[in-house]
Amino acid sequence: MSTPGSTHHPFAELIGLTFEPSEAGTSRCRVPVRAELLNPHRVVHGAVAYAMADTGMGGALVPLLEEGQSCATIEIKIVYLSSVRDGVLVCDTRIVRKGSRVAVLESEIFESDRLVSKALGTYSIHSR
What we know:
Blueprint: H1 10-15, E1 18-20, E2 26-32, H2 46-61, E3 69-80, E4 88-98, E5 102-111, E6 114-127
Antiparallel strand pairs: 1-2, 2-4, 3-6, 4-5, 5-6
């Protein structure tokens, strides 16, 4: 598994998250639903959608960073709109605004054509 700008992402591998090719400033990642990702109510745990948004936001921002820069999550707000029991989750992310020190990003998570979560994130941009 390879995320944009890196070669190894153990947590993404743990949940089965993979990236599709996309333009800089955007990302698309997916996670197939499997039993290990369900909560006791047999629906996908909210942490999966959160992890997709967080990782997708990093994947959209990292290609736009300058040499020697890194980024880190400041905050993410997420709204869970619908539960998911099976299928494949797809997270589409775009940069809303990128400044020199802070970026704001938006993610939408779908199962098929159904919007199931929406997230807004703020990231710091800093020297390594």
